[in-house]
Design a protein that fits this description.
The complex is a heterodimer of chains A (about 290) and B (about 750).
Chain A: H1 2-15, E1 20-21, E2 28-29, H2 40-44, E3 76-84, H3 87-97, H4 105-124, H5 134-143, E4 153-156, H6 161-167, H7 171-183, E5 191-193, H8 205-212, E6 216-218, H9 224-237, E7 245-254, H10 258-268, H11 270-274, E8 278-287
Parallel strand pairs in A: 3-8, 4-7, 7-8
Antiparallel strand pairs in A: 1-2, 5-6
Helix pairs in contact in A: 4-7
Chain B: E1 2-10, E2 13-19, H1 22-30, E3 56-64, H2 65-71, E4 75-76, H3 85-95, H4 97-100, H5 105-112, H6 129-133, H7 147-164, E5 168-170, H8 171-181, H9 183-186, H10 189-198, E6 203-206, E7 208-210, H11 220-224, E8 246-248, E9 254-258, E10 268-270, E11 285-288, H12 317-325, H13 331-345, H14 358-378, H15 385-391, E12 396-401, H16 407-419, E13 425-429, H17 432-445, E14 452-454, E15 467-471, E16 482-487, H18 499-507, E17 509-519, H19 524-531, E18 536-540, E19 553-556, H20 560-566, H21 571-582, E20 586-590, H22 594-607, E21 613-615, H23 623-631, E22 637-640, E23 653-658, H24 667-674, E24 688-692, H25 697-713, H26 719-733, H27 745-755
Helix pairs in contact in B: 1-10, 7-10, 13-16, 24-25
Classes of the chains: A alpha/beta (about 290), B alpha/beta (about 750).
């Protein structure tokens, strides 16, 4: 009797579609069709940025920020974001960061990967000759010989020790590592946060900048071997020696770009270490 | 987080202790235990004098909390302190075996954080520079604070223990409780907690723990987590299989380990199931206060407390009735309440079957209850309410009251019975709106008490009272706290089918406490327990207005999507709806799916112009507004889903379930939906129609259950109701020519009712 039941149960399992519960809505459905762990309905809610309007910060609509004169001085080349920071994403990212739902790292990193691929296509195209891109362009032009754009190293915005202790994981690191694994790119910690600042999300632009001034430094335990590795990357790409090294900086949300700019300026100091120009590209999950 | 680990001597040898604040341990072990508080003196098994000549040695200044917690309390081999660091570490690794199997081998040493220093000899050496000179985060203020600090510390520990009584809190929750109730403790909470821990008055541990292999639960759990759901339908935590199980100590769910930046372990699990109540993880601190029953002389129930008067067990029936008269119950309610009160006030006697497991519960107290719950869960039974009930039926009571019977009123005498003997009462319900609705009624019924109402996002999160009213999720913050636990709407979402909430409902009960389940549609497994006489039960088969329940009519019509597609509604239904509208009744139309609600409403608006029609579902923001306007007859027809199957009372209403054959409507929800009709005394005879293209077991079962209750109700019915009842039943029976109930079922129903009151 019970054996019959077991056999029937097994048969039914074989025949019925494999359903799992969706990470967001919890309904049992076929998940992972477009994004891992998410059902179709929830995946359709993702407000992807397909065509960035602002070539610098990747915003999907007009961007007054990047027209400010000081924006030109920002240390990173450009930013691309996977999705708009709308109510849906706000909720999901909060679940991910504060709600201990690390499962979200999977779909998020897929979104980042897709954005990275788009970024690659976009940056592998020749650049327009004018506009705010003049400065990166000069470097870029020389590099166009090696046909495609690729990041050389993936790193992320660090958390302070207190925040890390409280949260248990660095949301950007988790995304960065998954992304690096998918793209088979080297990844590692380059930055450290020296000051425990309050949450950026409660601050105005001026406060954010003041707040973050000097909040980051190079990671204290950077290995000398590490620089060798960079050398070899540079040599492989361009034996003549002026080839820039491109760092992809991962974060969860880009609001004013202050964090990315401050981190990028710290990363720029690496230039002295391995005597090559360093270009920082920012890739974030959401763009507000 | 990380915790320190040290070894300290006692007469029975060396033991390991964890520490959150080594200053406190230093004071504890070197002096007469910091002004021992009255209750703790006798509990101190290791007096300081036994320390003379023994060593106290710090082994680690910070290791992942879950490891320290696993190690603490372990006794060490006597020669341990003479061993080399490598040998010690080997021993520690051996003791941690199960914890380490997913760590990277080369990182374990640094995570254990072995302090390689010499043994500290004798108590005198404790003053020496070894304690103070270490670069030690726990020991930053190296010269010990003065005696005033000690005195304050012991006061703080007492306050903490008092606040923690019956509680099970994460450190974050505890801190927010302290902020509210005892702000002076907040800054120094680690010291207070550590002292209370050394006094053995609270228990510390990781909030998620790895299952010990010896419990034999290895294979059991991943499958059981799906308990209560149809097989093959939903897999809740797919990743949990095959790995050594982590289990959340707060909610009992399985969790999956991963790398953690807070403790450094590669196998630190976070519980996703109870994340709505704060982050529970392996290296997170879970504090368990003393169980309530620990307070001497309060043993409930039965134990005759001086001055509490005779208990119901010894009372003659008349006296008990007189006591219940205060609550003005209907005869059926009073009969059931009488049974329940007798149950509460009787020592669980030898007459009741299934007594074996109880000795453990009563003797072992708080943690035994938890162990038993875990055993019930792992011993092949499903970790749901029925599983727990089956493992210990003698302390439980099922109050099976039909929809509209007035369950809340019946609770009052039970609450009173426990309160007059000084017990703590909990009324838990799965839904927040019920808490909000019940709170004022409890306040009027018990003006001397101040019932605490707890739900997600409530203001008074930490208030305690003799009576606590809470959503079932809030129970996770309690452990061993209540002498009477009432679970209202046992079979309602989300309580039903959630092993986490069933676990919480078990855990919050004090040793020797009782549980009363309240339901109109108890789950089958509980019904089975009642049927074979293991679970005590009282049935209230009649509504407070003493008319029988409307018996559903099964109507065979085309399916709802078909009709919507064609834009035509079947005549039999239209005829009945017209009739309902003519007699001035409100019409409930239940449909299985949200997507059908609005289209059906639109179609109805076309067919009945001038009749206001509404539609609502769980995704409707204005749901409560629509229900209100339906109740006040501004809307005459309301199309809705199962979301309104409970808790809605509309005075004069008829119920139509279209798509009653849907798998989303089980027997219980059909009975509940049918229970929306005829609830008021003005119009006790509503109409209930189950319309579907096919007859299902659920429909027949629901009708059978209603008929059975009506039969049991016969002695309680009003004379005029009794007269009409036969006709109503006849009328309902006529249109269906199929067989309604298997032969013998009325007999078994009778047998049930006669068996339940037996004692």
């Amino acid at each position: 009797m019970s054996r019959d039941k077991k056999i029937f149960a097994a048969l039914r399992r074989l025949l019925s579609p494999r359903l799992e519960s969706c990470l967001v809505c919890g309904r049992s459905a076929r998940v992972g069709a477009s994004l891992p762990l998410l059902c179709e309905y929830c995946a359709a809610k993702v407000p992807r940025i397909v065509e960035p309007r602002c070539p610098i910060c990747g915003r999907a609509h007009g961007c007054p920020d990047c027209l400010r004169p000081e924006a030109l001085l920002r240390a990173f080349v450009l930013n691309r974001s996977a999705v708009l920071y709308d109510t849906v994403m706000r909720e999901w990212i909060a679940e991910y960061k504060y709600g201990a739902r690390e499962g979200f790292a999977e779909p998020f990193s897929i979104l980042l990967e897709q954005t990275y691929q788009r970024m690659r296509r976009e940056l592998s195209k020749p650049f327009p000759q004018s506009g705010p891109f003049a400065s990166p362009l000069s470097v870029f032009d020389s590099s166009r010989r090696s046909s495609v754009w690729n990041a050389d190293w993936i790193t992320w915005v660090p958390l302070s020790a207190e925040r890390l202790e409280e949260r248990g994981f660095n949301q950007a690191e988790r995304l960065g590592r998954l992304l690096a694994g998918r793209l088979r790119l080297p990844a590692g910690e380059l930055l450290a946060r020296t000051v425990h600042t309050g949450k950026q999300s409660f601050k105005t632009r001026a406060e954010r900048l003041r707040n973050l001034e000097g909040a980051f430094c190079l990671a204290p335990n950077l290995d000398p071997r590490f620089f060798k590795q960079w050398d070899s990357i540079g040599n492989r790409k361009d034996p003549q020696g002026s080839f820039p090294i491109r760092i992809l900086l991962i974060d969860d949300i880009y609001t004013t770009g202050t964090t990315a700019a401050v981190c990028a300026s710290v990363l720029k100091t690496l230039e002295t270490g391995f005597k090559r120009p360093v270009l920082v590209y920012s890739l974030t999950l959401a763009r507000s | 987080m990380k915790a320190a680990l040290y070894a300290a001597g006692s007469e029975n040898g060396l033991r390991l202790y964890l520490s959150l604040d080594l200053r406190v341990d230093r004071v504890w072990w070197e002096s007469e235990a910091v002004v021992p508080s009255p209750g703790s003196a006798n509990r101190m098994k290791h007096g300081p004098e036994s320390l003379q000549g023994q060593g106290v040695e710090i082994l680690s200044l910070g290791m992942p909390l879950q490891w320290a917690s696993r190690l603490s309390g372990k006794s060490l081999p006597p020669a341990f302190l003479d061993w080399h660091a490598a040998a010690r570490e080997r021993w520690i690794r051996g003791a941690l075996k199960g914890e380490l199997n997913r760590e990277k081998p080369d990182s374990v040493s640094s995570l254990i954080g072995f302090a390689t220093q010499q043994r500290v000899q004798g108590s005198g050496a404790l003053h020496g520079e070894r304690w103070g000179s270490r670069p030690d985060e726990f020991d930053a203020e190296s010269p010990l604070p003065g005696p005033r600090w000690k005195l304050r510390l012991s006061e703080h520990a007492d306050t903490l223990v008092r606040l923690m009584e019956g509680r099970s809190l994460l450190s974050g929750e505890m801190i927010s409780m302290l902020q509210e109730l005892a702000p002076e403790l907040e800054a120094d909470w680690r010291s207070a907690v550590q002292l209370a821990y050394l006094q053995q008055r609270i228990k510390l541990g990781g909030a998620v723990a790895k299952e010990r292999k010896s419990s034999g639960a290895k294979a059991g759990f991943p499958a059981e987590d799906r308990g209560g759901r149809p097989a093959g339908k939903i897999r809740i935590r797919p990743a949990g299989r095959g790995l050594p199980a982590h289990r959340c100590m707060r909610c009992g769910s399985a969790a999956v380990g991963g790398p953690c930046a807070a403790c450094g372990s590669a196998d630190c699990a976070r519980c996703e199931a109870c994340r709505a109540l704060g982050r529970s993880r392996s290296c997170g601190l879970l504090l368990q206060g003393p169980p309530r029953a620990d307070r001497g002389g309060r043993g409930l129930p039965g134990a005759a407390r001086p001055g509490s008067g005779p208990t119901a067990a010894s009372l003659p029936q008349a006296a008990l009735r007189a006591r219940l008269a205060r609550w003005k119950l209907s005869p059926a309610q009073a009969a059931a309440a009488e049974l329940a009160v007798r149950f509460l006030e009787t020592e669980p006697g030898p007459a009741r079957p299934g007594r074996a497991g109880r000795e453990l519960r009563r003797g072992g107290g708080f943690f035994a209850a938890r162990a038993e719950a875990a055993a019930a869960a792992s011993g092949g039974r499903r970790p749901d309410t029925s599983g727990y009930a089956a493992s210990d039926p003698a302390s439980r009571f099922l109050l099976w009251a039909v929809t509209g019977a007035g369950k809340t009123e019946m609770l009052f005498p039970l609450i009173e019975s426990v309160r007059r003997r000084g017990g703590q009462v909990l009324v838990a319900t799965p839904r927040r709106d019920v808490v909000l609705e019940l709170a004022p009624r409890l306040r009027t019924a018990f003006p001397d008490e101040a019932p605490a109402a707890l739900y997600g996002g409530c203001e008074e999160r930490w208030r305690r009272g003799g009576i606590t009213l809470a959503t079932t999720h809030q129970l996770m913050r309690f452990a061993g706290a209540f002498d009477l636990v009432v679970i209202d709407e046992l079979d309602a979402f989300p309580f039903h089918g959630d092993p986490m909430l069933a676990y919480a409902a078990e855990k919050c009960r004090a040793a020797g406490g009782r549980t009363v389940y309240l339901s109109a549609t108890p789950p089958r497994s509980l019904q089975a327990l009642v049927r074979n006489g293991r679970l005590a039960c009282a049935k209230v088969p009649v509504r407070y207005h003493r008319y029988p329940l409307p018996v559903p009519e099964l109507l065979r019509i085309p399916s709802l999507p078909d009709c919507l597609r064609r834009g035509r509604l079947p005549d039999p239904l239209l005829k009945r709806w017209r009739h309902s509208l003519e007699r001035g009744a409100q019409i409930f139309i239940f449909v299985p799916k949200i997507v059908h609600a609005e289209p059906l409403a639109a179609l109805l608006r076309r067919i009945f112009p001038g009749i206001p029609v509404g539609a609502t579902s769980s995704q409707d923001e204005e749901r409560s507004g629509k229900v209100l306007s339906f109740r006040s007859a501004d809307v005459r027809i309301l199309v809705t889903t199962t979301i309104l199957e409970r808790g809605v009372t509309v005075p004069r209403s008829d119920v139509y379930v279209w798509g009653a054959d849907s798998g989303l409507f089980d027997e219980a929800s059909l009975v509940q939906m049918a229970g929306r009709a005829g609830r008021s005394g003005d119009d006790p005879r509503g109409r209930v129609v189950f319309a579907a293209p096919q007859k299902t077991r659920a429909q027949a079962g629901a009708r059978r259950q209603i008929r059975r209750m009506n039969r049991l109700a016969a002695p309680f019915l009003l004379p005029e109701a009794r007269k009409g009842f036969g006709r109503a039943a006849q009328a309902a029976r006529l249109p269906i020519k199929t067989k309604i109930s298997p032969p013998g079922s009325p007999r078994s129903a009778e047998a049930e009712s006669s068996r339940t009151p037996e004692r």
